[in-house]
Design goal:
By secondary structure, the protein is an alpha+beta fold. Helix content is 31%, strand content 28%. The chain has one domain: Histidine kinase-like ATPase, C-terminal domain (Heat Shock Protein 90, 2-Layer Sandwich), CATH 3.30.565.10. The longest helix has 22 residues. The model has no long low-confidence stretch (mean pLDDT 85).
Protein backbone atom coordinates (compact mmCIF):
# COMPACT_ATOMS: atom_id res chain seq x y z
CA UNK A 1 0.00 0.00 0.00
CA UNK A 2 1.46 3.32 -1.07
CA UNK A 3 1.24 6.40 1.16
CA UNK A 4 -0.47 9.46 -0.28
CA UNK A 5 1.55 11.71 2.03
CA UNK A 6 4.34 11.30 4.57
CA UNK A 7 6.27 13.36 7.09
CA UNK A 8 9.27 12.73 9.32
CA UNK A 9 10.10 14.53 12.50
CA UNK A 10 13.14 14.25 14.77
CA UNK A 11 13.64 16.02 18.09
CA UNK A 12 15.58 15.80 21.35
CA UNK A 13 13.95 13.76 24.12
CA UNK A 14 13.06 16.73 26.32
CA UNK A 15 9.64 16.75 27.96
CA UNK A 16 8.87 20.18 26.46
CA UNK A 17 8.94 18.55 23.00
CA UNK A 18 6.00 16.25 23.76
CA UNK A 19 3.53 19.08 23.09
CA UNK A 20 5.44 19.98 19.91
CA UNK A 21 5.12 16.38 18.66
CA UNK A 22 1.35 16.34 19.30
CA UNK A 23 0.90 19.66 17.52
CA UNK A 24 3.01 18.64 14.51
CA UNK A 25 1.11 15.36 14.12
CA UNK A 26 -2.23 17.18 14.41
CA UNK A 27 -1.22 19.74 11.78
CA UNK A 28 -0.19 17.01 9.36
CA UNK A 29 -3.36 15.01 10.06
CA UNK A 30 -5.59 18.02 9.35
CA UNK A 31 -5.56 17.31 5.60
CA UNK A 32 -7.82 14.29 6.25
CA UNK A 33 -10.40 16.51 7.98
CA UNK A 34 -10.80 14.27 11.04
CA UNK A 35 -13.50 14.78 13.64
CA UNK A 36 -12.56 16.52 16.87
CA UNK A 37 -12.71 13.16 18.66
CA UNK A 38 -10.45 11.45 16.11
CA UNK A 39 -7.93 14.27 16.38
CA UNK A 40 -7.99 14.12 20.18
CA UNK A 41 -7.58 10.33 20.15
CA UNK A 42 -4.51 10.48 17.92
CA UNK A 43 -2.95 13.38 19.79
CA UNK A 44 -3.40 11.53 23.09
CA UNK A 45 -1.88 8.30 21.76
CA UNK A 46 1.08 10.20 20.28
CA UNK A 47 1.55 12.03 23.56
CA UNK A 48 1.72 8.71 25.45
CA UNK A 49 4.18 7.16 23.00
CA UNK A 50 6.47 10.20 22.98
CA UNK A 51 6.34 10.40 26.78
CA UNK A 52 7.37 6.74 26.96
CA UNK A 53 10.42 7.52 24.78
CA UNK A 54 11.40 10.46 26.95
CA UNK A 55 10.73 8.94 30.39
CA UNK A 56 11.44 5.25 29.88
CA UNK A 57 13.51 4.99 26.69
CA UNK A 58 16.19 7.42 27.73
CA UNK A 59 15.57 7.56 31.49
CA UNK A 60 18.21 9.93 32.89
CA UNK A 61 19.86 10.87 29.61
CA UNK A 62 18.91 12.66 26.41
CA UNK A 63 18.47 11.04 23.02
CA UNK A 64 16.48 11.54 19.86
CA UNK A 65 12.82 10.73 19.22
CA UNK A 66 11.83 9.91 15.64
CA UNK A 67 8.31 10.15 14.25
CA UNK A 68 7.28 8.97 10.80
CA UNK A 69 3.67 9.59 9.85
CA UNK A 70 2.00 8.26 6.72
CA UNK A 71 -1.43 8.99 5.32
CA UNK A 72 -2.90 6.40 2.97
CA UNK A 73 -5.59 6.72 0.30
CA UNK A 74 -8.17 4.85 2.38
CA UNK A 75 -7.82 7.41 5.23
CA UNK A 76 -5.56 5.08 7.21
CA UNK A 77 -3.11 6.94 9.41
CA UNK A 78 0.10 5.21 10.49
CA UNK A 79 2.42 6.83 13.01
CA UNK A 80 5.73 5.27 14.04
CA UNK A 81 7.37 6.70 17.13
CA UNK A 82 10.86 5.43 17.80
CA UNK A 83 13.71 5.89 20.23
CA UNK A 84 17.18 4.37 20.35
CA UNK A 85 17.19 4.11 24.12
CA UNK A 86 17.39 1.23 26.57
CA UNK A 87 14.62 -0.89 25.01
CA UNK A 88 11.98 -3.01 26.73
CA UNK A 89 12.94 -6.37 28.18
CA UNK A 90 9.43 -7.87 28.12
CA UNK A 91 7.01 -6.08 25.77
CA UNK A 92 4.01 -8.20 26.79
CA UNK A 93 4.55 -7.32 30.44
CA UNK A 94 5.14 -3.64 29.63
CA UNK A 95 1.80 -3.50 27.81
CA UNK A 96 -0.11 -4.79 30.85
CA UNK A 97 -2.17 -2.02 32.46
CA UNK A 98 -0.58 -0.70 35.68
CA UNK A 99 2.88 -2.10 34.88
CA UNK A 100 5.64 0.49 35.16
CA UNK A 101 9.39 0.51 35.62
CA UNK A 102 9.10 3.83 37.45
CA UNK A 103 10.22 3.47 41.06
CA UNK A 104 9.14 6.92 42.28
CA UNK A 105 5.40 6.32 42.01
CA UNK A 106 5.01 9.17 39.51
CA UNK A 107 3.83 6.89 36.68
CA UNK A 108 0.62 4.86 36.58
CA UNK A 109 1.66 2.34 33.93
CA UNK A 110 -1.27 3.10 31.65
CA UNK A 111 0.51 4.48 28.58
CA UNK A 112 0.08 1.46 26.31
CA UNK A 113 -3.48 0.88 27.54
CA UNK A 114 -4.35 4.47 26.66
CA UNK A 115 -2.78 4.09 23.20
CA UNK A 116 -4.75 0.88 22.60
CA UNK A 117 -8.03 2.48 23.69
CA UNK A 118 -7.70 5.38 21.24
CA UNK A 119 -6.16 3.67 18.20
CA UNK A 120 -7.36 0.82 15.96
CA UNK A 121 -4.03 -0.98 16.27
CA UNK A 122 -0.90 -0.60 18.39
CA UNK A 123 2.26 -2.60 17.76
CA UNK A 124 5.37 -2.41 19.91
CA UNK A 125 8.77 -3.72 18.88
CA UNK A 126 11.78 -3.39 21.10
CA UNK A 127 15.31 -4.66 21.61
CA UNK A 128 17.16 -4.18 24.87
CA UNK A 129 19.96 -1.70 24.36
CA UNK A 130 18.72 -0.73 20.88
CA UNK A 131 15.41 1.05 21.44
CA UNK A 132 11.68 0.78 20.89
CA UNK A 133 9.30 1.49 18.02
CA UNK A 134 5.59 2.00 18.62
CA UNK A 135 3.37 1.84 15.54
CA UNK A 136 -0.07 3.42 15.88
CA UNK A 137 -2.80 2.95 13.26
CA UNK A 138 -6.23 4.46 12.92
CA UNK A 139 -8.69 4.83 10.06
CA UNK A 140 -10.20 8.29 9.89
CA UNK A 141 -13.84 8.62 8.99
CA UNK A 142 -13.08 11.79 7.10
CA UNK A 143 -15.73 14.51 7.15
CA UNK A 144 -14.54 15.99 3.88
CA UNK A 145 -12.06 15.81 1.05
CA UNK A 146 -8.53 14.53 1.66
CA UNK A 147 -6.52 17.55 0.55
CA UNK A 148 -3.41 15.44 -0.14
CA UNK A 149 -5.19 12.72 -2.10
CA UNK A 150 -4.02 12.58 -5.71
CA UNK A 151 -6.71 13.66 -8.14
CA UNK A 152 -7.90 11.13 -10.71
CA UNK A 153 -6.56 13.29 -13.57
CA UNK A 154 -3.08 13.90 -12.06
Amino acid sequence: MKASNEMKLTFISRSCNEAFARTAVAAFLASLDPTVDEMADIKTAVSEAVTNCIVHGYRDTLGMVYITMRLYENALVEIKIRDTGCGIEDVSQAMEPMFTTCTTGERAGLGFAVMESFMDKVRVRSKVGRGTTVTLRKTIRSRGENLCQPKADS
